[in-house]
Every structure is written in C-alpha cells, then in structure tokens.
Amino acid sequence: MAVFIGVLMEDNKVATVSLVIIVAFLIGVVLRLAKPVLFPFFLAIFLSFILYPALDFLTRIKIPRTIAIIFILLFTFFILYLLGSLFYSTGRTFAAGFSEYGEKMNSILTSIFTKLDLPQLKISTIDWLGEFDLNRIGKILSSTLGPFFSFVSNLFLVLIFLVFILAGRGRLKKKVKKYLDKERAQKANVIINNVDKQVQKYLVIKTIVSFFTGVFAFVALVLFGVDFAIIFGFLTFLLNYIPNIGSFIATVFPVTIAIFQFETLWPAFWILVILTTIQIIMANLVEPRLMGHGLGLSPLVVLFVLFFWGWLWGLPGMILAVPITAIIKITFSNIPGMQFVAAFMSKD
C-alpha cells in the first residue's frame, strides 16, 4: 500500500512538472506569436506607471480626469514621436557615413602594421578590408533601425491601450470591495496598494536615473566633439534598463567611434573613463540610494530573463525584461503564498 502511494505521489510530481513545462512552453509561443499586440500592451503598462503620478497631480488640482488623460496622451505622443524621429534620422545619417569610418579604420590599421614592421599582416589585412562593401554595410545598418523602432509606427496602438489603462486605474479596488467580504477586501486592497506604490516607485526612479545617465553621457560626448552624441545618449538611456550588459554596450559604441573619428587613442581613453564613471556613480550610488536595497534581482535571474525576452521580442524585449521581472518580484513579495518566489528571485 505504501509503495502504491509512493508511486502515485511520484507520478503526480512528474505530471505536475510536465504540466508546468508544457504551460511555460505554450506561454512562450503565445508571447512570441502575439508580439505585434502584446509588446504595445506591455509598453503601455510600463508607461502608465510612469505617467500616473502626473495624472494624479492634475486631478488633485481640480482638472477633470478626462481632460487630464487627453493632455497626458498628447504629451506622451509628442515625446515618443520626437525621440523616435530624432533617433531614426540621426541613425540614418550614421549609417550613411559608415564608409568614412571604414576608411579611417583601414588607415589606422595600416599605420599600426607599418610601425610594427609587419608587412605580411599589413597586406592581408588591407586586402581583407577591401573585400567589404562599406556602402552595403551602411544600408544594412540603416534598414535595421526601422524594425528596432517599430514602436513608433505602433504608437497609436500603445496610446489606445494607455487610454484604457489610465481610465481604469482605481476600479480594481472598487470591484474587490463589491465582490469580497469586508475583511478579505481590506487585505486584498492593502496588497494592491503596496504593489502599485512599489512598482510605480521602481519604474519612475529607474526611468529618471536612466534619463540623467543618458543626459550626462550626451553632454560628455558633446564636450569631446564625438559624432552622433545624441544617438549614443539616447542609447544609454534605453540600455540602462538592461543591467551591466546594457551599460557595457552603451559605453563601447561611442568609444569605438571616438577611436576612428580622432584616429588616436587618448580622446577615446578619456571618454571611456568618463562614461564608465558616470555608469558606476548612477548605478551603484545614486540608484540604490533612491531605490532602496530591497528590489535587487539575482544576477542569474536577470541573465535568464534577458535571454528569454531577447529570444521572444529581440532588443525591445531585453529592454523591458528587467522592469517586467521587477514588477513580478514586487507582486510576489506582497502575496503571502508567493513570497518564497520573490526571495528566490532576490540577490540577497
């Protein structure tokens, strides 16, 4: 009898694990196939947490909620469209001038090999570089900018989702009070309030820190006279949502351009030092002081979600990966039965 029960329990565990794997696989397939709709929806949720303090402020100063929502939507549309258009036009200019940097790279490598007295290597390297059609590479770079910023073309869909999300905020608490008894409704609303405040705090602070990181990087690059400083500043802002990897990429790109632009290492070296210092100060001093130490995610969890969302939705998915995971962790940490999952996701 005991053996039968043990086998039955073991079968239940196998069935449960198998079911979890199947469900996770199906969720991944749905998320991947439904990207055209779900990505704007997730982006709208992301923006709603950032914009809700402005909506709350406008309603507190006696502006009708409908007018406040319209004003916020118009402002959001203007900012997103301006940033997308600016980045796209600057990126096309960068792609068009890519061949110039290829020629400078050829010149620098030729100079280095000549000084090192490596004639065989010099010849093979120059021939290798000559095989590249730099104009074709520039066209490829230009064409990839469109898909990356496809959210500009989907901006109308994002705004539609944003209308319903902002208009519906606060109704969940009323529904909880209506359909649950007083004690359970009170507990549920406490959890909803805590999740809402913590998620809002995280996203607002993360966005502000990312914005100023991008601004400081932009100013530093402008002072050094680096080409396309605005595109690198904007990239720094976006990639700051990706811990460590994003900061590394946001630093390597302008440093590499600086090497080929100035054809000497010293400006690039100081740019590397300054950008790295900005990233360290903002990520390790400013952000933890504003955010607190309770929202840290495990590096292993961060790495997994970056690969997962990158596989699902590419670079836009990687940018949203950590904020989405932080929202899940905050939610679980406020639900008594799911706090162990939040503890597993934490780096502490």
Number of strands: 0
Give the rounded overall mean pLDDT: 76
What is the straight-line distance between the termini? 44 Å
The fraction of residues in strands falls at: under 5%
Tags for this entry?
single chain; 348 residues; mainly alpha; 86% helix; disordered N terminus
Describe this entry's structure for a reader.
The chain is 86% helix and 0% strand. The radius of gyration is 25 Å and the shape is globular. The chain has 348 residues and is mostly helical. The protein contains 14 helices and no strands. It starts with a helix and ends with a helix.
Secondary-structure blueprint:
Blueprint lengths: L1 H32 L1 H26 L4 H32 L1 H18 L3 H12 L3 H15 L6 H14 L2 H9 L2 H43 L4 H11 L5 H18 L2 H27 L7 H35 L5 H7 L3
Brief overview:
Helix content is 86%, strand content 0%. The chain is an all-alpha fold and 348 residues long. Helix 2 (35-60) packs across helix 9 (182-224) and helix 3 (65-96) runs antiparallel to helix 6.
